[in-house]
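Annotated sample (chain length 454).
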Amino acid sequence: MIGLRLLSTFLVIPFLTLTAQEQLLSKEEAVAKMLKHNFGILVAKNQVVIAENNKGILNSGYLPTLTGTAGAAYNRNDTNTEFPGQLDDTGNPRPDISLENAESQRYNAALSLNYVLFDGLGRRYDFKKLKEQYRLSSLQARETIENTMLQMFSIYFEIARLTENRNVQQQALEVSKQRITRSEYAFEYGQNTKLDILNAQVDVTNDSINLLNTQQQLANARRDLNVVLNQNLNEVYQVDTIIDFIPKLKLDEFVGRATTNNVAILQTERNLNINAYDVKVNRSGYLPTIGLSGSYGWNRNQNPPSAFLSGTVFPGTNSTVNSLALGANLTWNLFDGGGTSVRVKNAKIAYENQELVKKQIVLEVDRDMKNALAIYENRLNIFRIQEQNVRTNENNFERSREQFQLGRITSIEFRQAQINLLNAQTNKNLAKYDAKLAELQLLQLTGQLLNIEF
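Output written by the structure step:
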């Protein structure tokens, strides 16, 4: 008895502590935290920003290029000029001419402007392709968000299921404890044997172990949720256990529009457009390229004095030059060895392959839709049956409790009614959240997962 009391105390104290520390995390709040903090979603959003930068005018090739250059040079020379064997006008040897610290400076600056007027329309289709790639990146980010949302709700509903299981197991444990007390009183008054007390103690032990296991699973699930939400792992949340299902008429409307909203189909359409632009970009290699160029330059030279053969020293000079140049150019690759032709053919084949991929994905999505709808309807029916089964077992348990208290059934029969009720309640919890997850998976296929309210 002392061991059972210690075990009960060990179970109750953590339960009360966790309950006091828990804060309610609604489904809407969970979605908001996921969108704001989840690592995978943050990475996907950054990829969209990169694609948005790429589709801008600064990456289009439509703007000219302007290049600036500048330079400076400095020289200092000491020069000694000799005239061996030469005589001056007086017949004396010609003296040497020395120039010391002869400095020269050179400065230059230039601006070059280049602009492509026409490149065979390749630039135009590249620009359109970048816009399609941005739309594709947005769809890929949406797919990441949808998958992460399903992952998050699978954990969220697992916490809800384990929370409800913990509550019913706690109630089962309390009933088993009451059996021990009743069996002890009955034994003292000679109404039963020691065996009834031992059976009740065994049931308390089993219920306690089941509760401990559920609490451990619940703690693990909470840490899993914190990882998805990118929260402190020690954060403890109480989740919403109320489940509402979408009306059938609304769900049928979503299913009817699935092919226009499914993210996988939309991605194949974006890829198809990208491949179409690839064909046009490669065809631009058949056409010429016309460009304009212009430049402006400034040069300044400061030259030092220099010696002449006559023996005189020519003084230093300074010169400044300003230059302006304009030009136009035409480049036409009349034959490149067949490379452009091969690229065009391959681009066309890639486009045809993408058409086949689209047809395959449309077929697979249609199959997945039909399977998901059948699974959802089946799980929803199972949930309704399990709800009725719980009501039946609750009535059976209450009648068995009355009969047990009157001594008309044995403790084994009463325990069986208790186990049947416990199994019915846990099966109902499992069926409820399985049905809701099946509904979310169906909504993802219809492309409406991000458009509903939770």
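Annotation: The two ends are 47 Å apart (CA to CA).
Annotation: The chain has ten helices and eight strands.
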